[in-house]
């Protein structure tokens, strides 16, 4: 089972969830290109991330996996699964959408990017700005530990990697291709998610009638930090129903 983080994250955000599932599956948490311990040329499109993912599966000799993607990680999974559906035994999409700011004009996109560039003081996000962004992403009554951890994650962002991922995401649109996702899909979102409102996840459910959608009451955009036990239960249930379709293997470590 492979876990993919969002645009403001890293592999460690999924570690508690992966640890809770190791009795059921071999788990891997990846750092996307230029996140965490991963390095490489700046991405130009979501296809670059998808190519990285498919290359990783090839490297590890995995024909089919269950994959869990949060936010940008969900976009990467949708992109990869549209390109190579045979590689995925199932998808769990958390706070994910099938199009990202596709309605914006080029001028509006540049304004949006400019605001995100302003998060950085030189190469880093200041503690004050990181705390402000964390507050905007989490539910108002999210655990303080989640708020502290997410703020630290924003401070650790690599500027060029984050901004290139953001530019690659803006305008990405796979809505017309959702029906090609014939593998089992589960959808997860928080009722207080302002980054990817439940209506965006509902749009995927409408395109994929067999996909089950779970709404977590009082949870914001980061259920893996705000409600890890609920995430483990949902993913564990998905594994029970669909895990037999994934490749059988063992790994010496789970973070890549």
From TrEMBL:
Q: Which residues form the AB hydrolase-1 domain?
A: 1-228
As recorded in UniProt, coiled-coil segments are none
Q: Name one GO molecular function term.
A: hydrolase activity
Annotated InterPro entries: AB_hydrolase_1, AB_hydrolase_fold, AB_hydrolase_sf
Q: What are the record keywords, sorted?
A: Hydrolase
Q: What is this protein called?
A: Alpha/beta fold hydrolase
Top-rank lineage group of the source organism? Bacteria
């Amino acid at each position: 089972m492979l876990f993919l983080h969002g645009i403001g994250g890293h592999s460690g955000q999924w570690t508690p969830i992966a640890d809770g599932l190791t009795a059921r599956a071999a788990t891997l948490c990846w750092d996307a290109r230029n996140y965490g311990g991963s390095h490489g040329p700046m991405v130009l499109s979501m296809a670059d991330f998808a190519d990285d993912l498919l290359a990783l599966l090839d490297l590890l000799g995995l024909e089919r996996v269950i994959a869990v993607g949060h936010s940008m990680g969900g976009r990467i999974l949708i992109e990869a699964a549209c390109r190579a559906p045979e590689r995925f035994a199932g998808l769990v999409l958390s706070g994910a959408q099938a199009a990202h700011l596709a309605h914006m004009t080029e001028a509006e996109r540049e304004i949006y990017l400019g605001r995100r560039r302003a998060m950085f003081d030189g190469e880093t996000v200041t503690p004050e700005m990181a705390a402000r962004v964390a507050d905007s992403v989490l539910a108002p009554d999210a655990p303080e530990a989640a708020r502290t951890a997410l703020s630290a994650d924003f401070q650790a962002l690599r500027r060029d990697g984050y901004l290139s991922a953001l530019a690659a995401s803006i305008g990405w649109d796979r809505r017309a291709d959702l029906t090609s996702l014939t593998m089992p899909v589960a959808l997860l979102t928080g009722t207080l998610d302002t980054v990817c409102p439940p209506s965006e996840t509902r749009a995927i459910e409408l395109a994929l009638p067999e996909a089950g959608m779970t709404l977590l009451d009082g949870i914001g955009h980061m259920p893996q930090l705000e409600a890890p036990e609920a995430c483990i239960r949902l993913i564990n249930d998905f594994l029970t129903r669909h895990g037999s379709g994934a490749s059988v293997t063992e790994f010496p470590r789970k973070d890549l």
